[in-house]
Amino acid sequence: MLVIGFLVIRTWAVLVGILILISVSFGINTNFELMGLSGNYTTFIMVSMLIFFGLGHSSVFEGIEVKNGDSQKSDILKDKIKDVQIKQVAEYMEKEKPYLMPALTLDKLAAQLKMQPRILSHLINRHFACNFFEFINSYRVEESKRMLADPLCSEKNMLDLMFDVGFNSKASFNTLFKKKVGMTPSEFRKQAIAQQNR
After folding, report:
1. pTM score of the predicted model
2. Given 94, 104, 166, 174, which is the most exposed site by the fewest CB atoms within 10 A?
3. Per-residue pLDDT of the chain (198 residues; tens, 9 = 90+)
């Protein structure tokens, strides 16, 4: 509405300018004072509306008159929402195992969780203390540990297992696994088999 209003005012100003040129050229008498005043008053009204609208919807003044109790209630509500979202993310990761998809991105996971990507990223960074890729890869490493220790998966070679848990690079799989577990996947498998045979 304001954009259209200012466009009309500018159009009116251009029209007045054209009429002034025409009147000077052809000697036509027109009340330019009244036209100029009406344009100025309209501009004043539009600027006042812009200021009023801006103050009414600005976050600059949020919280100035909030009472202490109201602020605490708001913080408690935010914490509850955050706890629900954290639980939702953790349960979804455990049950649905979206990390098994090699092409998983923040946007795709957020869409699956029906959550904004910005909020999901914030939750992962703050609550899980890592970025999105570290978060996903930690689940992939845990899944690979489970499969490496599972006798039913003993026939699988490392490449198949790597693809099954969502990795698409052997180098990154070995590096991340060793960083998290302290040994290579092959060493972990040997150790797991040795413990099972005792």
Report:
1. 0.60
2. 94
3. 777 877 887 888 888 788 778 877 777 777 767 777 777 787 788 778 778 777 765 544 444 444 555 556 556 555 666 888 999 999 999 999 999 999 999 999 999 999 999 999 989 998 888 999 999 999 999 999 999 999 898 889 999 999 999 999 999 999 999 999 999 999 999 999 888 887
CA of residue 76 relative to chain centroid, distance:
23
Q: What are the sequence ranges of the domains in the chain?
A: 101-196
Q: What length does the chain have?
A: 198
What lies within 8 Å, CB to CB, of 185 at 6+ separation is: 144, 148, 158, 161, 173, 174, 177
Indicate left, alpha or beta for 130 from its phi (over 0: left) and psi (-120 to 50: alpha).
beta
Torsional class of 129: left (φ above 0), alpha (ψ -120 to 50), beta (otherwise):
left
How far apart, in Å, are the Cα atoms of 60 and each of 47, 55, 64, 68? 19, 8, 9, 19
- CA-CA distance, 188 to 182, in Å (whole number)? 9
Q: Which CATH architecture has domain 101-196?
A: Orthogonal Bundle (1.10)
Are the CB atoms for 106 and 120 separated by under 8 Å?
Answer: yes
